[in-house]
Design a protein that fits this description.
The protein is mainly α and 469 residues long. It contains 22 helices and 4 strands. The mean pLDDT is 86.
Length: 469
């Protein structure tokens, strides 16, 4: 067995052992397994009481796990790297805002929105794969300005955090100030907020622990503590949960998630509105995935010493292919864009160096398929701390922007601010691109490298002019 594993994963060549890879794979799994609950929660947003919505929850649950397994196994056998993949945080919430929410507001079927969203994800995934195979993906990544590249993940961080604050009831709507802090003088409004705050404190404290397994499991342990508080505070509403079984979960997935690609609904105005909107959504998903993956892979590979003489991650093309295949698989199985998870760094820190660790992580994800009936009892107030914590981690990207140059500062700020304030990742990218191009033209600094971002800006202007927001 050892000879087989050594031949497939080049264990000795990478100076690692089977034990180290197993420990690394376990560590990565416990660092990111929160996504199996958070992903379906975010894909259906606040609409737990909408008829039939739990069918989508079940489909997302199964589809998200299967896509994560497929993508992570691709990473293991194509790239032989200890990186795990799953549905991207922020993009799953963006999926709800772009496809499910318009149906709720417009009185359309949420299943139409879900199918239309999966169709758009598939289009973006196929384009993503083509860009990866041809090498254009790397060219796009190097062509976009640093101010925009850094502001995108930071803006997504704020966007995710805002959703976490709203899900927990910490931040509420206000007709005069738009948003406000919840009313802590009444237990009904204060309790969910306290649940989330306790969970966040637990996550941050454990993330600073000197004990490695506590650090790597900080998020999932924080969610579990918050869930316990939720029930201890008497907040459980038995009517809000649809009693289900493993059989029902798989049946809903086969009915609503598997190959539920409604291309017609994506273009007929039921959920999106026009071709320009579809194009901008595809561009948004592609751009976010490009920078999510590159940022995670470069950071994690550098920490592990898995880089070449130029400082680039080894097998970078294969890593990109795995990511793109995962997104295509996600669209087919029923979830939003798949991306490489930064939590893979915890497994690398534990000694993982090869794809064998990714195989271990995949097996553990596969076993999670049978916990859906239990996972449904985890409330959004308990998963909200995970969103806020991820937002904290992502906002640090803004520190890489050169704020001494006002054109860079303006581009980054507009991108960063527009995302949470308009509840849209794509709006932030579009406004940021337009701001950058205009400032470069008016200050005489425009050059050939700006052609890519110019194309995005032109499409954004067409979208704003011809598509009713």
């Amino acid at each position: 067995m050892y000879n087989f594993l050594n031949r497939v994963f080049k264990l000795e060549e990478n100076h690692t052992t089977v034990r180290a890879e197993i420990v690394g794979g376990l560590t990565t799994f416990f660092a990111m397994c929160y996504i199996i609950i958070v992903n379906p929660n975010q894909m259906i947003g606040f609409s737990f009481d909408v008829p039939g919505i739990w069918g989508i929850w079940n489909a997302c649950f199964v589809g998200g796990i299967l896509a994560a397994v497929i993508a992570t196994l691709c990473m293991a056998f194509l790239a032989n790297k200890p990186f795990a993949l799953a549905a991207g945080m922020g993009l799953n919430s963006f999926f709800f805002v772009s496809f499910i929410l318009p149906c709720l507001i417009g009185g359309h079927s949420v299943f139409d929105g879900y199918g239309a969203g999966l169709a758009v994800i598939l289009i973006s995934g196929i384009i993503f794969l083509i860009l990866s195979i041809t090498g254009v993906r790397k060219h796009i990544a190097t062509s976009l300005p640093t101010s925009l590249k850094c502001a995108i993940p930071a803006g997504i961080g704020l966007f995710i955090a805002l959703i976490g604050f709203a899900n927990s009831g910490i931040v509420v709507g206000n007709p005069y100030t738009f948003v406000a802090l919840t009313d802590f003088s009444t237990w009904k409004s204060a309790a969910p907020a306290l649940v989330a705050f306790i969970g966040l404190v637990v996550i941050v404290v454990l993330a600073k622990s000197k004990i490695s397994w506590l650090r790597s499991s900080a998020v999932i342990l924080g969610i579990l503590v918050a869930t316990a508080c939720f029930y201890a505070f008497g907040l459980f509403d038995s009517e809000a949960i649809v009693k289900t079984s493993v059989g029902t979960v798989f049946s809903d997935w086969a009915k609503h998630g598997l190959f539920n690609l409604k291309f017609g609904k994506a273009f007929d105005g039921v959920t999106i509105g026009s071709v320009f909107s579809v194009i901008m959504l595809v561009i948004t998903y592609c751009l976010v995935d490009i920078f999510d993956t590159l940022g995670t892979v470069y950071g994690t590979a550098t920490e592990a010493g898995l880089v070449d003489e130029n400082g680039d991650p080894q097998n970078l093309q294969e890593i990109m292919h795995s990511d793109a295949i995962g997104t295509v698989a996600g669209a087919v199985t029923g979830t939003s864009t798949i991306t490489t998870f930064v939590e893979s760094a915890s497994g690398v820190a534990s000694g993982a160096r090869t794809g064998l660790a990714s195989v271990v992580t995949s097996i553990l994800f596969l076993l999670c398929l049978f916990v859906a009936p239990v996972a449904q009892y985890v409330p959004t107030a308990a998963t909200a701390p995970a969103l806020i914590y991820v937002g904290i981690l992502m906002i640090k990207n803004i520190t890489n922007v050169d704020f001494t140059d006002i054109t860079n500062a303006a581009t980054a700020f507009m991108t960063l601010a527009i995302m949470p304030l308009t509840y849209s990742i794509s709006n932030g990218i579009m406004v940021g691109a337009i701001t950058y191009v205009l400032l470069r033209l008016l200050t005489g600094k425009y050059n050939k490298k700006d052609l890519v971002v110019t194309g995005i800006a032109i499409l954004a202007i067409l979208k704003f002019v011809f598509v009713k927001m």
